[in-house]
Specification:
The chain has 361 residues and is α/β, with parallel strands linked by helices. The protein has helices spanning 5-8, 51-57, 107-110, 158-161, 167-177, 194-205, 220-226, 238-243, 262-267, 289-292, 306-319, 333-341, 353-356, and strands spanning 11-18, 25-32, 39-48, 74-81, 93-96, 99-101, 121-122, 141-145, 150-151, 186-190, 209-214, 231-234, 248-253, 268-276, 297-300, 325-328, 348-352. The protein is built from 13 helices and 17 strands. It comes from Gossypium stocksii.
Length: 361
């Protein structure tokens, strides 16, 4: 049975929530649980805006529970620690991504793949163990089991680190899993948005040769000069595509809009891998012959487990990888959502929770 947080919890909290499928966010008072023996309670300082926040606020996937406090790219400072917490202390810089719970006993959990646990609990909009619905980072405070909390190294700025907890791990994990992290490999990145620009940064830091593939010729200068990509292909230019046939070892496809896969498969070498990260509204059309001819693979990926997420954050710290962000105030969030829908952000909105979220009466 799903229960309201105030029926289960006693600690007052506040944030911004969507109250219905209009998706409009407004101030919202709610309750969190007290700090348990294995919990980390932290003050939220920054929270990134993921496109899935927009989907959930508008109930576009049909599973939203209102009132809904979005946010799963969350960083802050630990304010209270449970008596059995081992990895954190008060004052530590901490982060929480897309999940706050799992069963801890299935094969996926045992193998550090909590993100694929059938009972994985999302950071917001999901029933927690106690029956209350989880609330996300568009709020002043969170209480999370230490297993699902990551440590943020001192040299990473908190604001530009927040989106790494979703967008960053979403591109880092497939680069590692599909073996596209070896120096000298040629890796394509489709789309130059929130995911795509981070895919370029991580792939370059891994030593690969990166080609950005985009429908927008105007993004060429950004890709090559600002992000450090090695080459740029306009996906609608048949001459460019023809010249690049069979040149890539793998492709990370970050685009959620409907688009043809056949030209991308043509860019792959034999045994090449096309990894899908976006979720289009309609199923892809797939021709089998291009897969057979060259023994090519199409795969998918979704965030990463907690061990890998910490590994990603540590890798980002070592290589000075940060998200390109636009910082906004909490009361700008609805405008930001409208702009996000139009693709008008470079490349991730981050809400300055610590300085601009004010309690409602």
């Amino acid at each position: 049975m799903t229960r309201l947080p105030e029926e289960v919890h006693s600690n007052k909290a506040f944030g911004w929530a969507a109250k219905d499928s209009s998706g409009v966010l407004s101030p919202f008072n709610f309750f969190t649980r007290e700090t348990g023996e294995k919990d980390v309670t932290f003050k939220v300082l920054y929270c990134g805006i993921c496109h899935s926040d927009l989907h959930m606020a508008k109930n576009e996937w049909g599973n939203s529970i209102y009132p809904l406090v979005p946010g799963h790219e969350i960083v802050g400072e630990a304010t209270e620690i449970g008596c059995k917490v081992q990895k954190f202390k008060v004052g530590d810089r901490v982060g929480v991504g897309c999940m706050v719970g799992s069963c801890h006993s299935c094969d996926n959990c045992i193998n550090n793949l909590e993100n694929y646990c059938p009972k994985m609990i999302f950071t917001y909009g999901t029933k927690y163990y106690d029956g209350a619905v989880t609330h996300g980072g568009y709020s002043n405070t969170m209480v999370v089991d230490e297993h699902f909390v990551v440590s943020i190294p001192e040299n990473l700025p908190l604001d530009a680190t927040a989106p790494l907890l979703c967008a960053g791990i979403t591109v880092y994990s497939p680069l590692r899993f599909y073996g596209l992290d070896k120096p000298g490999l040629r890796v394509g990145v489709v789309g130059l948005g929130g995911l795509g620009h981070l895919a370029v940064k991580f792939a370059k830091a891994m030593g690969t040769n990166v080609t950005v593939i985009s429908t927008s010729p105007s993004k060429q200068k950004e890709a090559l000069e600002n992000l450090g990509a090695d080459s740029f292909l306009v996906s609608r230019d048949q001459d460019q595509l023809q010249a690049a046939i069979g040149t890539l070892d793998g492709i990370i496809d970050t685009v959620s809009a409907q688009h043809p896969l056949l030209p991308l498969l043509g860019l792959l070498k034999s045994h090449g891998k096309l990894v899908i990260l976006g979720i289009p509204g309609k199923p892809f059309e797939l021709q089998v012959f291009p897969l057979i001819q060259g023994r090519k693979l199409i795969g998918g990926s979704m965030i990463g487990g907690m061990k890998e997420t910490q590994e990603m954050i540590d890798f980002a710290a070592k290589h000075n990888i940060k998200t390109d962000i636009e910082i906004i105030a909490m009361d700008y969030v609805n405008t930001a959502m409208d702009r996000l829908l139009k693709g008008d952000v470079k490349y991730r909105f981050v809400i300055d929770i610590g300085n601009t979220l004010r309690p409602s009466s």
